[in-house]
Specification:
two-stranded antiparallel ribbon; 302 residues; elongated; single chain; 12 strands; Rossmann fold; 7 helices; alpha/beta
């Protein structure tokens, strides 16, 4: 058995490193706390660390988005943990949990020393990429020395499909942006009516097969919309039983395009395009979402 709930071997003479990664709202902190609490219930001495940059729920606790919390040490550098805890207490420790690990520049050195030299089990949770899908901090550096790596996913806020990345809702372009649902959400690269094809600084690349060029406006003429529909039908291999059904689906497609244009206004600098359910009714979408949710195991894939 592998994953965040895999029991650790308390008889192991050497330490271990276990990594939990994924996008925002994938349950990384929940998995970390569940695993650390399990170790404590088994009689092992545990301690938790988080970055002092994360002040959302106070500095003295690690708190999940669902309100579950455990006390922790809030530090700017992991290298200071041993001195702050004290040599005697540090020597008694069996398990060290690190949350928001992407903020610690000395993550690699700390994990190596704690596991290889001090015999500790280190459980690390953090983002593996930023909102541009680039590496974030030093989390990826410890993948090669980890005993296990768990990649969590969640549901896309926009379509409910399995989400692997973090989508930023605001205009900020700095890598570090600590916030909640108002500023970030889990997302996929393509869903039923939205595809992000260009980030705020032009570095996000995705599907560009629908090449209709328009200004940032919600006004489109009928000819342009029908041309977009034809392109979309070719792209997604969509066919209709007769001309009447095609006209009905075109009306639904046109509404989806309006949604895309609305999002352009809300998320300046991003481009949006209709996805694979662009011509479906609300009832059809409601019917297919439970199947997608079942596939993603209620939003998380083990």
């Amino acid at each position: 058995m592998d994953g965040p709930d895999r029991p650790l071997d308390v008889r192991a003479p050497y330490g271990e490193i276990h990594v939990i990664v994924g996008p925002m709202f994938a349950g990384k902190t929940t998995a970390l706390l569940r695993r650390v609490r399990s170790e404590a219930d088994n009689g092992r001495s545990v301690a938790l660390i988080k970055s002092n940059k994360d002040t959302r729920y106070g500095l003295d606790s690690i708190v999940t988005h669902n309100g579950v919390k455990m006390p922790c040490w809030a530090l700017s550098e992991l290298s200071t943990f041993r001195d702050k805890l004290g040599e005697e207490e540090y020597d008694k420790l069996d398990v060290i949990g690190v949350d928001e690990a992407q903020f610690f520049e000395d993550l690699y050195d700390f994990c190596c020393k704690a596991a290889d030299n001090d015999g500790k089990t280190v459980i690390v949770a953090g983002l593996d990429g930023d909102y541009l899908r680039r590496r974030f901090g030093s989390v990826l550096d410890i993948i090669s020395i980890a005993d296990s790596v768990t990649k969590l996913t969640t549901r896309c806020e926009l379509c409910g499909r399995c989400a692997f990345f973090t989508l930023r809702k605001t205009k900020e372009t700095q890598t570090e942006l600590i916030g909640g649902p108002a500023s970030t959400c889990p997302g996929i690269m393509s869903n039923f009516w939205l595809t992000i094809t260009e980030g705020f600084n032009g570095m996000l690349k995705a599907d560009r097969s629908m090449t209709t060029k328009t200004s940032m406006t919600t006004e489109r003429n009928e000819e342009e919309l029908r041309r977009m529909h034809e392109e979309w039908m070719v792209k997604f291999k969509r066919t209709y039983a007769n001309a009447e059904e095609k006209e009905q689906r075109f009306v639904l497609f046109k509404k989806t395009v309006e949604n895309c244009d609305s999002c352009k206004e809300q998320y300046k600098g991003c481009r949006f395009a209709p996805g694979w359910l662009a011509d479906s009714t609300e009832e059809e979408r409601d019917a297919i979402m439970p199947l997608i949710n079942l596939w993603t195991k209620d939003g998380r894939r083990d």
